[in-house]
Structures are given as C-alpha cells and as structure tokens.
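Message: Just now I want nothing more than another pair of eyes on a protein record. I am handing you a single protein, as its sequence and its fold in token form. As I understand it, each token names a local backbone shape. Take your time, and here it is.
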Amino acid sequence: STQSHGGELTFPNKMAKLFSSDEVSRHNKENDCWIIIDKKVYDVTKFLADHPGGKKVVLAVAGKDATAKFNALHKADATLRKYGPQLYIGDLSAGAASAPAPAQAAAPVAVTTVERVKKEKKPPLPHNINAFGEGIPYGDPNWYQDWNSPYYTDSHRRLRAAVRQFVEKELTPFCHEWDEQGRIPREVFTKCAKANWLAGVCGPPWPTEYVGSEIAGGLSPEEFDSFHELIMVDEVARTGSGGVLWGLFAGLFIGLPPIQHFGSEYLRQKVCPPCLRGEKVVCLAITEPYAGSDVANLQTTAVKSADGKHYIVNGEKKWITNGVFAEYFTVAVRTGGEGPHGISLLLIEKDMPGVTTRQMKCSGVWPSGTTYITFEDVKVPVENLIGQENLGFKYIMYNFNHERWGIAVQATRFARVCLEESVKYAFKRSTFGKLLIEHPVIRYKLAHMARQVEATHAWLEQVTYQMKTMSKEEQHKQLGGPIALLKAQATQTFEYCAREAAQIFGGLAYTRGGQGEKIERLYREVRAYSIPGGSEEIMLDLGVRMAIKRVMKSLQAQSKM
C-alpha cells in the first residue's frame, strides 16, 4: 500500500533501507537494474520486460537518478502508487545528491520560468496550509481551498478526506485496466460498501435499516444530507472515468430508488440490503430501440397469465447500464393502454428463463456494462410488481430529478478534471523553449475552462441546497426545470473542457493510457453524459417549458383576484 504525506509518497509496509548514490550506480545492468526517483530507490530488474516503453529507455538511466525523465513521460503519482510497492527497496541516504549539480555560471544571468520550474520538484503553485488537495488552481471546488461557504461543516470535510483516500488507493490506479477489460471486479463493489460510503449515492436519508449506521468519516446518519452525497459522487468522479462511476453505482442511483420508495416490504428486503452492501447489482431498464427520452411510448409488454399469478413479459431494452452483470432489473413495461397511464414497473431477475443479455460496444463508459436485453415469454410473479399497476410512469418521473442532478455532479467534476490535468501538464510540458503555461493561448484556454467550471459548480451547489431544504413534493414542483437546465449546462461545460484539454495535451489525448489517459477517456465519454437522462435538447426545452408553465399559473391566479 502507499500513503501520501505532504505530497511525498511513502510505502508504510516496507522497511526503508538507505543507499548512497555510489551504491545505486553499481546496479546498472540488465540483470541488475536500480533507479532513483524522487530520492527513492527502485529495483526494476524484473520489471524491464514489462515496461510499456521497452527496456532500453529504462536501461539508459540504470544506476542513475531518473526523476526528470520519469516525470516527463509518466503520470508520476499514479504510476508509483500502482507499481511502487513492488519495486521500492529503500531511500537515498541523507546528503546524497539526487542529481548532478548544475555547473556554476560564469556571470549572473536571469533565470527563466522554465529553468526555475525544472529545478523544482513540483510546479510553483500557491498552497494554503489549511487547504485540502493538491492546490492546483481550480482543480477542486473553492471551499477545498478554505473559501468561506454556507454549505459545508466539519462532517463534510471528514467525509471528503475519507472518500478521497479510498478513491486514490482503490479506484484511480486501476481505471485504465478496468476500462480495457470492460468490467470492474465484483470485489470492488464490496470494498466500497465496507468503506461505508456506497449506500450514500442513493441520497439522504442514510438507509440504516439496510446497512447500519456506520458512515465514512465518522458521520452519524442524522448528519447525512445532500451535500454529503454531492461530495461522494464528486470525489469518485476525480477518477476521470465515467465507466467506473456508472459501473459502481448507476444501478443504485437509478435502479434501486423505485424499489426503495414504492416497492413492497418483500421486494425491499429482497433487493435493497444485498445491493447496498455491494453483494448484488440492480439496474434500470427503460430505454428501448424504439423509445429513449420518449418514455411514455415504450413497447415492452407484460400480460397477466390466465391464472393471474404471473406477468408474461416480451420486449427489448437497449443501452441498459449495468445490465450485463446485474442480478436484478427494474423494468418499465406496458400493462395498460397507450401513453403514460399504461406503464408499470416490474422487478425481473436475471436467472428467470427467457432473459438474455449481451454487452454493447459503445464509444465510452466501457466498464459500466452497457447492455442489450431481450425478454421472451418471461414469467414474472405478480409479487414482483413495484407499487401499483399502471403507475410506473409516475415512479419513473419521481427519480428523474435525482438522476439528472447526479449526471450534473459527475459532468461538472469531469470538466474540472480536464482543467486540473491541463494545468498540471502545462507546468510540465515545454515547447519552443517555454513551458506551455507561458504561452498566452494556453492561459486563454485555461481561463475559459475555469470560468465555466466555477459558474456551473456554483449553480450545482445552489440547486443542492434546495434539495437539502425542500420537501420531495416541493422539489418536484420547483426543481424539474432548473435541474434540466443544470444538466445541459454541466454536460456542455464538460464537452468544452474535454475538447480544450485534448488540444493542450495534443497526441497524448489521442492515446489510450499514459499521461493523457484521463483526457482521452473523458473525450470519448462526453456523449454518454449529454444524451442519457434526457438529451441536452430535451433538457433545454423542458427547462423553458417548466418556467413558462409557472408564469402562466401565476398570471391565471392574478386574473382571478
């Protein structure tokens, strides 16, 4: 395992030996290869054959300080977190030079920013000792940098620290691997649950009846509010992987709430505990090849059997997140006539005869298990009806605000990840004798990214405060339109930042893995946020229509006075 203390990576499970530079220099051959990175010594002999760039580039710095070359070619922190524990053997002894000292200049000369930054281990970025995180400008919300905020308390800070530590250790180092595999190992779900935060993505109140009262950061269930949920989702989104977020908790976000809020006690006890403990997965199956945002016109049918004990389900569902590895499906079916009043929700289990799933090949969010599902004469017990028959459309609408808010949280952080990664890279990459950050055109791009991210996040916090303080009924009346517009704002900001970050990273943003890993992946995943949960066009129209509807009601009320 690894830990970070003041930006310095440590390996607490290793006994630190001390080596002099001369001692390290003797290990400079293919069968005996050591290198120095940030005054830590690594034995990379057995790693040479596995090095993605080949062994020659490593052998060129065998027995030497490789810090500069390593940092130039890798995401240093993430790479060392992943491989460091196996390769680390000790530290450079005190007083040992970690790199040759530069020759003394004959006369005083002006030190350029490039020269100054190259001599420093970290970019010369401002750092507030009371701040949280790496201190990258706009790399975290302003309250992380100790700005005054009316929204957050010490409980939010404790939760933030706990979730970030978990994410940096258990999720971020493995995102590329899971992306390429198209699947997240099932044990990761239980790890998230045992860390006592996974259940929180369903929103307040904390479900003590299913998972107990322990919450990450030492929170009490009574403290848990919408801003705690915001922090959980936002911190996991720092992975820069929509596939990991959707893979881990899209089902909890959109598939479980109908069962929680409207299911019978039998269904709640059957599904909620194992899903919230990370032992099983539930998904929401609404979208069809024929109907996406037009939910009222779905065609999957559920007809009662002659004995009235089962529904016989036939139809197809498409683009169903988590479907290929979910045990439970919350399925929208037509039990009545045309339109929204003929829709019901059923709990269908994957092992029921007639259920077929296959993973779809999409441009992004690969580990989330986007699925095509076919139902052929599936016999579903009537006890698996969620709520009342023909009220399914109402149940679907009930969770749309929360789903769209969650998409906005993720998209806003992803935009911020694009900005943060771009700032880091701009302090690292040199072109034409200057760091990228010294080029006005790069600062121009960063400025436009920052203003959009900060404005969007401020709106997100304002809406979250309404969710915290309004009743569910009041939220449904007042927040549908604003949340729809917020989703469109967040996804368009995400799209803008992903494009600008790709331009800053250049070819690295076109290459899977490596330094541009997050940017390449996020650029692919933009459409996975602008379309699901209601496309941008429908969200923009809904936001205006809802506002007009409220104005018309107000005018009608005034005319009657």
